[in-house]
Amino acid sequence: MDRRPSLESLEEQLRCPVCLEVFSEPLMLQCGHSYCRACVRSMTMDPLGQLQCPVCRCSVDGDCPPPNVTLARIVDALRELSQPDGAPSESCPKHHNPLSLYCEEDQAVICGLCGSIGAHRAHKVTPISSVYSRMKEDISCLMTDFQSERRKLEEKICKMAYNKSRITNESDVLKWVVRKEFGELRRCVELEEAGFMQRVESRAAALIASIQSQADHMAQLLARFQEAEGTLEALSNESHLAFITVSVAGFKECQQRQQREERVFSSINFNPGFNHNDIKISVWKRLHRRVLPAPEHLKLDPLTAHPMLKLSEDHTSVECGALLNRLPNNPERFSYSYCILTSRGFSSGKHYWEVQVGAKPKWRLGLIKGTTSRKAKLPKSPEGGVWLIGAKEGRLYEAFNTPRVTLPLTTQPARLGVFLDYEKGELTFYNADSPDELGFIYSFQAELQGKVYPLLDVCWHERGANKHPIKLPQPQQHS
């Protein structure tokens, strides 16, 4: 008799009446009929916990129906018989029954007898098929998690590779900038060196030429002395009268010639016009302008201008007018002092800008905190959030510190440079008239917080005597 039809017939007998599938975790009701665990859980129970058997329509207790261990074993045996020939079949080493159950507490595979009369009785047991399905789902979830983690790792690796390439490119660019900047510094130092060398060589050449000229004169004088010696030797053979006559005339001529020649000779010292300390100072002054940050592109903010001020169309020049402009009294605008701010402020970093005051006899410029009031008289002190230097009468300069400091400037600067190191709290003013070097004027030590703005105080026009504008020179664009 063929085996396959018998297995198929047995499989038909072992199907759940509800889901019509081979029993999975079969539970037996009080009426004797068995159903899959999931099918029993899907049945409707009344408030007393009773449910109606789908086959015999009897009311039975649906709370905790016991597992049908025998039926579960038969189902497992059917599955083992349905395996292809040669498939492994494992059995319990103690009871020699198929390993068809899984003990949830001990996490071990057991046979039916181990679960009913053996060491695992009263433990929660589950058919292997259900555990297999559950573990397959767990493995599937793990695979999904692994794939997700793998994708995340691949994305991170790609980002790291991108960052590596970006850092390499940025470092190459920075190295190019470093080489360029130091190349310019070296060229500047080389130009300074060439200038000092030329001064030394030209001065030495002039002195050597002067010494050579004097040496030539001495050689000529020496030749004359030799000639006079020969004349004296010739006179030694003359008569007494001739000897006396020629000797007196000759001696007087030699004496007069010697007096004339002595006035030509002078002592010469080598003085190039500088000493070795001047070299370092000169180079430092010239390099100082180069090592400062590039000048800022600043424009004046018309919203902050006092109503008496007149701005140029490009907002780079301001002067005090004669008439009061009708302007809105917005919070940013100065109402008392004749001041204006730039449109951009600073809250970090290093910044350098220049201001052109020309021959204006009275002015003030510097830095102001953004929170300082602009509706009252300008508090010209660091305590008021303002750091200024200024001029009056065209010759008196002062720094508005506490107390005020008179600045001993010997020349009237027409162009001033301002350097701000926000983190160090340093605000330094320079004479920027020379395109090659900066002359130090004054430095504030300030505790800065929040935003600060460059400030220009053009002062009252003094009936035209102080009408000169103040300008913000725009840095040249380098290609």
TrEMBL record:
<dbReference type="Pfam" id="PF13445">
    <property type="entry name" value="zf-RING_UBOX"/>
</dbReference>
<dbReference type="Pfam" id="PF13765">
    <property type="entry name" value="PRY"/>
</dbReference>
<dbReference type="InterPro" id="IPR013083">
    <property type="entry name" value="Znf_RING/FYVE/PHD"/>
</dbReference>
<dbReference type="InterPro" id="IPR050143">
    <property type="entry name" value="TRIM/RBCC"/>
</dbReference>
<dbReference type="InterPro" id="IPR003879">
    <property type="entry name" value="Butyrophylin_SPRY"/>
</dbReference>
<feature type="domain" description="B30.2/SPRY">
    <location>
        <begin position="278"/>
        <end position="477"/>
    </location>
</feature>
<protein>
    <recommendedName>
        <fullName>E3 ubiquitin-protein ligase TRIM50</fullName>
    </recommendedName>
</protein>
<keyword id="KW-0863">Zinc-finger</keyword>
<keyword id="KW-0479">Metal-binding</keyword>
<feature type="domain" description="B box-type">
    <location>
        <begin position="87"/>
        <end position="128"/>
    </location>
</feature>
<dbReference type="Pfam" id="PF00622">
    <property type="entry name" value="SPRY"/>
</dbReference>
<dbReference type="InterPro" id="IPR001870">
    <property type="entry name" value="B30.2/SPRY"/>
</dbReference>
<dbReference type="GO" id="GO:0008270">
    <property type="term" value="F:zinc ion binding"/>
</dbReference>
<feature type="domain" description="RING-type">
    <location>
        <begin position="16"/>
        <end position="57"/>
    </location>
</feature>
<dbReference type="InterPro" id="IPR017907">
    <property type="entry name" value="Znf_RING_CS"/>
</dbReference>
<dbReference type="InterPro" id="IPR001841">
    <property type="entry name" value="Znf_RING"/>
</dbReference>
<keyword id="KW-0862">Zinc</keyword>
<dbReference type="InterPro" id="IPR006574">
    <property type="entry name" value="PRY"/>
</dbReference>
<dbReference type="InterPro" id="IPR000315">
    <property type="entry name" value="Znf_B-box"/>
</dbReference>
<dbReference type="Pfam" id="PF00643">
    <property type="entry name" value="zf-B_box"/>
</dbReference>
<dbReference type="InterPro" id="IPR027370">
    <property type="entry name" value="Znf-RING_euk"/>
</dbReference>
<dbReference type="InterPro" id="IPR013320">
    <property type="entry name" value="ConA-like_dom_sf"/>
</dbReference>
<dbReference type="InterPro" id="IPR043136">
    <property type="entry name" value="B30.2/SPRY_sf"/>
</dbReference>
<dbReference type="InterPro" id="IPR003877">
    <property type="entry name" value="SPRY_dom"/>
</dbReference>
